Every structure is written in structure tokens, then in C-alpha cells.
Amino acid sequence: MILPKTPQTTAAVATHYDELDGFYREIWGEHVHHGYFVRGDESVAAATEALIARLADRLEVTAGMAVCDIGCGYGATAAWFAERFGAAVTGVSVSGVQVTRARGRMPAAGSVRFAQLDWLANGLPDAAFERAYAIESSEHMPDKQRFFDEAFRVLKPGGVLAVCAWLAGERPRGWEIRHLLEPICREGRLPGMGDEAEYRAFGEQAGFVVAGVEDWSARVRRTWGICARRVAARVVTEPRYARFLLDKTAGNRVFALTLFRLIAAYRTGAMRYCLLVYRKP
Questions:
Q1: What domain range is 56 assigned to?
Q2: What does the pLDDT look like over 94-140, one tens digit per residue?
């Protein structure tokens, strides 16, 4: 497990997303996750939806299922599941800004509801869902084992959990940990970054059977080059971007630097992006 030098709390995660709210939406859009690029020239909207579609396929979602979105962001992914499958989706996030925006969504089919809460103490009923997914949110959990334990608890027997996660490479070199992975955790408000073996073990300890792991690194890494170029363009053309980066009171302005660390981490193999699927017996 890669741990940041400065411990990152759930409150710090919430502040990160609240403070960077406008920037996230302007630079990337309503889906706060990587895009899945097949050709490489897809639009951001097409790539982010492609990632969700692949996730849904691996989850084996069918019409009318009860689904939990763990770390729902602005609710765009939850609304996609509701409209595509007529699903009843419950989304949770620690960010008040995100949940407020998510609650404004009115999907054309299915249903969505959103709650601002800490997944590690979520209070949701036992065996309430047939499917659950976490797209780039497990990284923000201080207690990874409890993340999986809670997912196991709220899923019905036979339920499926899918996790899209930033993972450390199998054997990152010392300089990659010092200059890429540890700063990414610290600057991106990740209490810890596990590797594939650890994520397998967490799921199995919770009671899941690991049904599959897919490495999507090569398909998603283009995300950060696009983000870096867009941020650079905004800094030049929009004064408020420059003001934010120069504002010493803005604790999360350092994430602009993290964009370049992420590009390097993917290129060196220090970091991976994987989909892991777990089944509850």
C-alpha cells in the first residue's frame, strides 16, 4: 500500500471535490472519472460513456435492478444506469457540492436518489442492492477493508460489485514511489493506493469471490493528457485559473501539478487502472 506522508482524511477528500468543483466540470465534464479510448480520437463524452458501458456489461445489469453508486460524483453515471436499465440507483458521496448537483437530475427512466454520507459509516440496509459499483472512489477510502466489508453487507446474495481503481504497479521503483505515487496520494487526497494483490485480498477477506480483473491502463491514460492541455489553455485565456493557481490559501491548487505526475505514472507503469469484479456467494 502506498501511503502519503501526510495522512489524508475523509474531510480532506470532501474539501478537495468541493473546492475544485467548477474546475472538474469545466475541464472534464459531469462524469468525474477516466474516459475509455478505443481509437484515441473519441470525444471526452463518448469516452466517459464507453467506460460506463463496459462497467455495466461486466456487472451484468438487467432491467429494474437496485444499484448502489459508491462515490457518485455529480450523479451523471447513476442517471445513465437509471435511464439505460430502468434501475433504481442510490448514489452516495462525501461532497456536499456534488450531492446538491446530483439531486437536480431527473432521469427519463428508472429512479435515482442521492445522499451525502461517508461510505465507511453509510447506515444503508443490509442486502438492499443487487449490484454496486465504485468508479475511482475506493482510493479515497481511509479503510480499504471496511470499504469492501460494507459493499458485501449491502449486497444481496448473488450480488456483484465492480470497482474501477487507480492501482500501484506490481513493483514500483523507489523513485517512482517518491516522485509519482506518494505525491499523487498526498496531492489527490488518497489515504492510500493499493495494488491488485491487495484489492483481491480485501475483497476475499470481506467474503467476495474475485470474478475477474481487467487492466484498462492503456485505454484510459489519454484522459490526463487531455486534462493537462485543457488546464494549460484555461490558464492562458481565463484569469481566474491563474489566480487560483497562485492563491496560497487554495489547498487543492497543487492538483494541477498532479496531472503531470499521473501522465508520467501511467507511462512508466508505476500506476495502473483496473476493473475488478467481485461476486457475493
A1: 10-279
A2: 999 999 999 999 999 999 999 999 999 999 999 999 999 999 999 99
In a domain, 198, yes or no: yes
Question: How many domains would you assign to the chain?
Answer: 1
Q: Are 98 and 72 in contact (CB under 8 A)?
A: yes
Q: Judge contact between 113 and 91, C-beta under 8 A.
A: yes
Say if 5 falls within a structural domain: no
CB 189 within 8 A of CB 12: yes
Give the tens place of pLDDT for each residue, 196-236. Answer: 999 999 999 999 999 999 999 999 999 988 888 887 887 77
Cβ atoms within 10 Å of 33's Cβ, excluding its own: 22
* pLDDT greater than 80 at residue 20: no
Q: 149: closest CA among 170, 132, 168?
A: 132
As a whole number of angstroms, the distance between CA 79 and CA 207 comes to: 29
| Three cell numbers, residue 253 | 491548487
DSSP one-letter code for 181: I
CA separation for the pair 259, 253 (Å, rounded): 11
The Cα 261–Cα 190 span in angstroms is 14
- Total residue length of the chain: 281
Q: Which residues contact 157 (CB under 8 A, 6 or more apart)?
A: 127, 280, 281
pLDDT of 226 reads: 87
> What is d(CA 64, CA 82) in angstroms, rounded to the nearest whole number?
8
Cβ-based neighbours of 272, under 8 Å, separated by 6 or more:
166, 167, 168, 169, 195, 196, 215, 217
Q: How confident is the model at residue 64 (pLDDT cuts 50, 70, 90)?
A: very high
Q: Which CATH number is 157's domain given?
A: 3.40.50.150
Residue in 16, 131, 141 with CA at minimum distance from that of residue 78 = 131
Average pLDDT over every residue of 261-276: 96
Report d(CA 218, CA 266) in Å as an integer. Answer: 8
